[in-house]
């Protein structure tokens, strides 16, 4: 059997070490006893002080009488028991005798020595080996010229080293100081005129500083508390700094501003900090720190903070998404600067904010951007894998998906093998809806692509922009003109955002006269042949009646489409609103497609032509209509009148494309929207019970997993129960707010209605 090893001392060992300790303690006086003794003795000393007027006398006396006195005092010391032995045990320190310690003190040793106080044995003291003189306890205090007794608390005697030393200097002298002297720290010899040696030391700067520190400690400002308060103030300072830095970063980020310029010292981040430092002491102090010191302003730290903030924001969004019963995904790919495809991921869902009693207080339709995924494989399967990995990583349940929104790209929306079909494998009811605003953009692009005159028109707008934009001189002539007011800066036509066409058109329309004037001027003064040619070319374009009529036509068209597009992009928009907006658009487009509207367009154009000094004759009258395909209208060939030609081949053609494309592209949206139409407050109130039955039946069939057949009964009950309230509201969102927030106590009665609304 192996011997069991103890990791704690046995009883015998404990007793042995206790005995040992007691022996040592017996030899060593309890430090506090000296303070006690001095107190009692001082009374006596005061009485006797008349006997000793001069300090020099005293000292000689001390040296002589040292032998008797020390023997008197010594027994008293031995009586004192060590009672706070636990402290001693902790660090194995039993006395503060300098001789028991090495040159470097641990923090724990220092603490205990402070607690123990100066080590002042009362003798008898052995004679110094060199000078053959003994130390005396009388050195511990002295009488000044006036006979006042002054104690030297710093003066100690090491029984181990047999040398006097300075308690204060040992513990607190600044060792880094150039004039640091280790003599009194390690102990000095008692030589002749030792009194003078003591007086010299008392006067030294090192000793006085050490005494001051010791005094601080006695008054409760221990090294620890001093250090601690310094540490605390540092902590507060850096906390304040980080607080400010984070706030600046959040402000910049929420304004979509970059943090840095080309080097780390310029840019918005530093500019704001510098500005704030004029009013804020913390930042002022931070910015005054010398170069190379930590200041938490480096780009690395900025990026770290941004990524930390980003993670927090993303986690909040994810937890919101997870809470939502249903969600819609909106995905799109874009190429970044390095030509890597980035899949942007947006979730649309309803977030219900609750108050402290878990009662819903606000309902919000949220569209949250979760981030970009870099995709190397741009096939539908590749996109799907990338997207599924993301949802897996964040723990988002895709079976809750009830809708998908993409652009028209085949990879995304294709019915066969497109991403939408692949996602539907996971969420069968995730119906694909073409992004409405995007679809509208495409509708306009279709029109521009299929009608040659229109595409030329936008090319020409672009030409005007390029002509002026490519030359600083021309741009300056345009914007510095003193006589005319330069209203809107010329804008570039951007193919993916049709609203840019509107901006470009407006800019040319408002600045038309100024542009013409500048062009004529240039044509006269320019000494470059190319420039003059280009000038003439643009003048010809702008002065044509065709151009002018198209300007008028598209101005009125954009006046209709622009607000609708803006409304479609609004975050509070829903399927119902989109449908209403689009049907409005269709109506207005249809209204334009007749002779009366065309005539009024021509009239308007003629007014403008008068103002601009343009002849009102269509230019393309000499166009040869040669090749026609068999499916095109045969009458086209007979149109020789340029006005009729414009009406049929440009005006009607454009409107027809707009109308048919709007209908086609928004079909899925309208289908889905009509599915939920019954939840529309107005529709619900106006529907008969039978209509409600049919509509809710459709919903519960399609979304059999989410909505039960009880929906019909609940809708009917809701209609009767809250009729007056429903009359006041207009959208499905308001209906659910009504149920969940305003009439929360009723909510549990209409679970299916609530589900359907979500
Ligand atoms: Zn000292």
From TrEMBL:
Q: Which residues form the DUF4371 domain?
A: 218-417
Against InterPro entries, the record matches this protein to: DUF4371, RNaseH-like_sf
Sequence ranges of Basic and acidic residues compositional bias: 60-75
Tell me the domain of life. Eukaryota
This protein's name:
DUF4371 domain-containing protein
Query: Segment Disordered: which positions?
Result: 1-23, 45-75
Which SUPFAM superfamilies does this one have?
Ribonuclease H-like
